[in-house]
Design a protein that fits this description.
This protein is α+β, with helices and mostly antiparallel strands. The chain folds into two domains: 134 residues, no CATH class; 152 residues, Alpha-D-Glucose-1,6-Bisphosphate, Chain A, domain 4, CATH 3.30.530.20. Helices cover 44% and strands 18% of the residues. The longest helix is centred in the middle third of the chain and has 27 residues.
């Protein structure tokens, strides 16, 4: 019988800005002194970032439809151009949202707008394009170009002092919190000892490639990341209560700063309840977390799957590989034709009786 897994994810809260204007009084607010989205270049840039991502996704997902929408001929060349423009828009949007004061990404949007206007001008002279649609698209791009240019000017003139003041708030905004828990039918001291030997962690943490012990508290970690890349970091144990909890944090050199605690609690019905609390800073904040989810790499998903594999290791002595685990993709519902090698994860300590 398998004990149900209890999962809960809590995203870090966005810390609000202090009362008052974000930029000095000399900042141009318009004739009416308007505030809010239009009066705040940083907020305006973030809006442009989300707009850029949304537009880019539409261009990448449906280049044929977007090509017809702007009134140019639907051929391979124009579709490929539209697809490339979409990738550029997504990259610009991610760059804007990843920065505290994204001056360079906003100016890169201005450069992209100029390129788009040049392409639309060429389309206007083509006998095969629909002039009214091309004209409407040109007017829209001109309007966005003006907003991009003004935002770039505002960010370049102001916000130097604000960058230092908002550094702590920006880090807090990007921090993501994950909580997961599972009950394992094994003695608490046994589960604690297995986890405390950090070299055992790759046995059940699927995305973890290796853990190298540096000294009694420090270790070097290497893990898989989205799109076939990898990340490495050094971590240290900051609190260790035998059979109760282990707390850790990454050192300054970490690609993705994170900290967390794992607690080992005797379960009322027997066994051990393992609770993991993880806080990390995604490369692009919440956006980075959402993008990672598309690749199945988001830490909240990882932690839940890793705890289920830990349960199998502690109760059964190995990770149970299903047919989907072996193939890793969509496949016909039939046994494989030949033997398939899978890594069997076995704990280095003796296991308690499983159920």
């Amino acid at each position: 019988m398998t004990t149900p897994t209890r999962n809960s994810t809590a995203f870090g809260r966005r810390y609000g800005d202090p009362p008052g204007r974000r930029f000095p009084e000399t900042h141009h607010q318009g004739s009416s002194g308007s505030r809010g989205w239009l009066g705040d270049p940083v907020q305006r840039a973030r809006g442009l970032g989300w707009f850029s991502i949304g537009l880019g996704l539409a261009q990448v997902a449906a280049p044929r439809r977007m090509t017809r929408l702007v009134g140019v001929r639907d051929d391979d060349t124009n579709r490929h151009t539209m697809f490339a423009i979409g990738l550029r828009e997504i990259a610009s949007g991610v760059g804007i949202l990843a920065g505290d004061r994204p001056v360079a990404p906003v100016w890169s949007r201005v450069g992209g707008d100029v390129m788009d206007l040049a392409l639309l001008r060429r389309a206007m002279t083509s006998a095969r394009s629909k002039k009214n649609r091309v004209a409407a698209a040109t007017a829209a791009v001109v309007g966005v170009t003006v907003i991009d240019w003004l935002t770039g000017q505002d960010l370049s003139r102001h916000g130097v002092g604000e960058t230092a003041r908002s550094g702590t708030r920006a880090r807090a905004r990007k921090e993501i919190a994950v909580k997961r828990a599972i009950t394992i039918w094994a003695p608490t001291d046994q589960v604690y000892r297995f986890w405390r030997n950090v070299e055992n962690l790759p046995q059940f943490m699927q995305h973890l490639e290796s853990v190298q012990v540096l000294d009694e508290k420090r270790s070097h970690w290497k893990a898989k990341a989205p799109a076939g890349t990898s990340v490495e970091w050094d971590a240290e144990i900051v609190e260790d209560r035998p059979n109760e909890l282990i707390s850790w944090r990454t050192l300054d050199s970490a690609d993705i700063p994170n900290r967390g605690t794992v607690r080992f609690i005797p379960a009322p019905q027997g066994g051990t309840e393992v609770r993991v609390e993880l806080r990390y800073q995604a490369p692009a904040g919440r956006l980075g977390s959402l993008v990672a989810k598309l690749f199945g790499e988001e830490p909240g998903i990882q932690v839940g799957s890793d705890l289920r594999r830990l349960k199998q290791v502690m109760e059964l002595g190995e990770v149970v590989h299903s047919d989907a685990t072996v193939h890793g993709r969509a496949h016909p519902g039939r046994p494989p034709e030949g033997p398939i090698n899978v890594r069997s994860a076995k704990p280095s300590t003796s296991q308690g009786a499983g159920r």
